[in-house]
Amino acid sequence: MDADRSAEHEERRDTAEHPAEHDELRPLRGVRVLELGNYIAAPTAGRMLADFGAEVIKIERPGTGDELRNWRLKRGTTSLLYRTINRNKKSVVLDLRSDEGREAVLELVRRSDIVLENFRPGTLERWGLGPDVLEEVNPEVVLVRISAFGQTGPMSARPGFAAVAEGYSGFRELVGDPDRPPVRVGVSIGDSIAGMQAAFGACMMLFDRERRRRAIAEAAAHDALTAEATAHDPSTAAAAPRDRPSLADRAIDVALNEAMFSVMESLVPDHSAFGEVRTRTGGRMEGIAPSNGYLCAGGKSVVIAGNGDAIFKRLMTAIDRPDLAEDPELQTNAGRWRRRDDLDEAIGRWCADREVAEVLEVMEAAEVPAGPISTAEDLVADEQLAARGMIQHLDVSTGEETLHDVAFPGITPVIGGRSLPIDHLGPDLGEHTAEVLARLGLGRTDEEEPTTIQPGPVKRDQLQPVRALFSRSDPLMYR
Fold first, then answer.
1. Is the pTM higher than 0.85?
2. Catalytic residue among 51, 191, 253, 423
3. For 226-325, where are the alpha helices, taking DSSP H only?
């Protein structure tokens, strides 16, 4: 590690070890979230809430926990994918299908602001944890539900992953080359978009809850100042909450296929109005040119987007093609799209003789939007990401005796010009079970003596009265 990177690393580590200094920038501090989520969608929502201060208690099944722990596992017992998606959370092991597990979950619901789940529709209801039960325990709780196709409709009971949703939504039809089958992007984008919508929905309902409370308080204060104040019935202060929809009716209902469908822009309107059926266009964007990836000398590529009228002229001038810059047919985007092959050939020929750095230098001077097509190696060394705290180094076990210094992506969106520091990575399975259950009054080894809480994953003999919570029953069906 060179001197500059070492200094950066120590600065990042010092920040990560003192996250309390940044608490004032975490607007969700004081919010408690109960995450009943597996894989990526609900955990992404939980991660976003945790990143900005919410206490997220992640419930995992006995034995294996979240299956993401084993996805892309290179060594050890927990993948870096899990450590990344589940950062800043607490892991509690409970069997939701046992009576004791259900009771513990309901006690957590009683003390939580948000319940986040991504089971197949009907699963929580079968376990006696449906919206009516949750509302009885905590009338103010916010419920966020993520599933493949939503809680209603003829396909609601079907299982599904993001890959299915990406195809169903029309997204996959647009990805790849026109003469080849549709391809998959290299990340679970459907899960991530659904998770972001779920986090937004949760915050939206929290805002609505606080607005309702404020309205009730203001109405009560107004009544107290009126001539009828002495006859005021205190029960009327609670009238507004009784008028609101049930928890089932106001639950945030995120469907993976709809999350992807929502980012399809004018795909359906263009078909509805003009009969157009869009399909794959390779690295291009339908109807917009020039905008593509171009191979440079040395084997790496850049993206150049010259799709504005003025930008196009600057781009053509920069690559020594004034003839194209002044061509009457190319003065509008429609004309450029008709001649997209000519434009891509001209730009590609110019890039092929130059390294990425030179191409980007010329594009920057011409004020043409452009950027490298980066690898993971490029990202770790990127100055812009480093300047905004988007690469954060933390020590983590990778299955060997010693901890490793590993780079992780920072927290977005940025507040105040720099990413907030990561507090901790995704925890070990059950790492916080004893702590959380003790807080509920369940963590006792006998009738008189409180449990001695030890760091690390809970041991079965630590929690005598709730031993049934750790039943290794059949795996839970999450989708």
1. no
2. 191
3. 239-243, 247-250, 256-261, 267-274, 309-318, 322-325
